[in-house]
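Notes from hallway chat w/ T.B., transcribed later so I don't forget. T.B. wanted the structure written out for a chain they're using in a teaching module, and asked if we could keep both sequence and structure tokens in one place. Agreed to drop them here.
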Amino acid sequence: MISRRMLLAGSGALALTARTTFAATPRTTTAPDLFVGTGGHGHTYPGATLPFGMVQLSPDTDVERWDACSGYHRTDTSIIGFSHTHLSGTGIGDMLDVLVVPTRGPVQLTPGTLEDPGAGYRQRFSDEHAEPGYYRVALETGVRAELTVTERTGIQRHVFPRGAGHVLIDMSHLILDESDRGVLIDEASLAIDDSGTLTGSRRVFRWAKGRRIHFAMQVSRKPDRIVFYGDGDVAQADGARGVAGKRVKAVLHYDDAGAAPIMIRTGISGVDVAGARANLAAEARHWDFDRYHAQAAKRWAPALSAVTVEGGTPAQRTIMASALYHAQLAPTLFSDVDGRYLGLDKQVHRLSGKDRAYSTYSMWDTYRALHPLLTLIEPKRTAELVGDLIRQTQQSRYGPPVWPLQGIETGCMIGWHSVSVMAEARAKGVRADYAAAWPNVRRRSFDFTMPDLDNSLGIEPYDTIGYVPADKVFEGVSRTLEYAYDDYASAHLADAAGATADAARLRKRSGNWRNVFDSTINFARPKREDGTWIEPYDPVALGHSATWRDYTESNSWQATFLNQHDVYGLIAAMGGDAKFEAKLDALFTASSVLPKDAPPDISGLVGQYAHGNEPSHHVAYMYAYCGAAWKTQAMVRRLLTEMYKDAPDGIIGNDDCGQMSAWFVLSALGLYPVDPVSANYVLGSPLFDRAEMRVGNGRTLVVEARGNAPDRPYVQSVTWNRKPWTKSWIAHADIVRGGRLVFEMSDKPNRNFGRATADRPPATTGVSR
């Protein structure tokens, strides 16, 4: 089974814990479990990195199957080696740059296979341990490997048994996929200089086509000899100082590797070798591994204490800590210590002051909850990210980015959701030059000669006939719905630029979702260019034929509710509150059977709701818009307890750069941004008895759930700063002032809470109510 993301490069019921498990516990920072998400379809990695760091130094166990998109899967029994860059939770694999293999015995230059690790340099392993900023493992050759990091450098310490050993540097290592065609590495080089620094570069055509990476590496003990290998694993002449080709390697030999630990420090850069050298020189100035480790732990401490909780079960507290950890891995730093970075225009730029460039923006996923979470717990970082996205929007020939990775716009998924991230930040008061992004946002919106990648196909008919025709453009229904949201977000950026007429045009066009909504059956469905609905029609099907999809990683059930900016318009189109509520009920109670061609991304099913994939993430909160907030409370609590575990398979779908985790963090606090650009949060059902969240400027949000228990998910009443709060929502502007949000919980619903029209989430300016 191949997902859309791969082509581009039932939930299990858990028994509710006993009520007594919610007894209050001391408020301490629970340690995250870095192996949560490394099994199942979570696609996370357990290695060492810093919050939003450039380097992710982690073990690789597989490069070929979908569930090893990060290079690692918890079920694997052998380790290939340790590479310096990884993606967390994505549905496509890439990276795994600069593989280091510490080992003994005869030199082997190929890794072998999962089934037969002895056929190559793979090693079985034991005694894995991972914590934020640190990883260690015992390899079968007797090597004890330890990893830690600074922002831009990887630090390794390998303790060998007495006797000969060697360290392989494999620049041919990368993710492989059955869809890959052609040359995946077209340029690579390695060289050693007089100081003993090993440098190298390569250009990779995996997912981010043409991505370049450079490194500079130093070892604490001079090797007795170095052998370079070129294409075909041909050894270079004795005394060779380097090698160039497509797939190059080097082996550092030690006659007595066990005489003392071998430390390796490696700086990387997306710009050039000089940048890698400068990063290494600035951040790795000594050979004290334990000191680096301690500094990494110190860097993680404030990030992991951004949210603290009391109550719940030990497992739930671990899930929360792990989710908070995973929500602070990406986007990843991409500018060197001197401010240089590679822009989406393929040019090298230099930042001044404290500005930073970033990569690894999974915005089809993360605009929904990850970026809203960061606006709360990382306001300064959010300002950096927004400034970076404005620059990327200016530099890219495709306009506002959707999935940029190390200087390459992959065009992955659909839409150009960076406009949501920018518009949300503007609505929440984050200072930035939003008007500077507008010219290229405008081009993306209205200039149909602008070049397209997969994410923006069909925008001209979307403008001229009001929808993306499903008989002409792949995934036309989902495109129409998501382009409409991006129009709504883009209108806010037009406002920032004073482009009043363009803003009005975008707000009007954001109503295009109506053109693929069939009010006779209350489903979003595919429509031909001539205006007729495609028949036959099945709301469970992914497309109107076996080879054609009308929806992006979803079907009609899921896509129908993909309307975050005009919920009241959707309610009206369905015939009012009662019919909308009944439609939501039907979504959650429908058969969970999917077509045989459904991608594995559609997972975590409750009826046809799919928690394992992002298009569904806001849907449980939509009950609040029709006055049935108690149903939001019940369903959110169910999702919190059924869809996450403190186990390797504890994330029900791909974590997608922290989006699945961010949903848990926010929902466990009792709030969620259905429409991030509105700068409002819908209230749900807090999981913990008490939680504290730092919200910037020395302020704290305290959330209490009094009378909370597994069988008491319902909100009887709410107070905000000791005053009654009857609304089923709260504004960002209120939360960031700090305060105390208190929920009184019960085993019986209060159907009147949030039921009055005045207490429901506000309508978005410029769209329906």
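Follow-up for T.B.: Confidence is low (pLDDT under 50) at residues 9-27. Might be a good example for the class.
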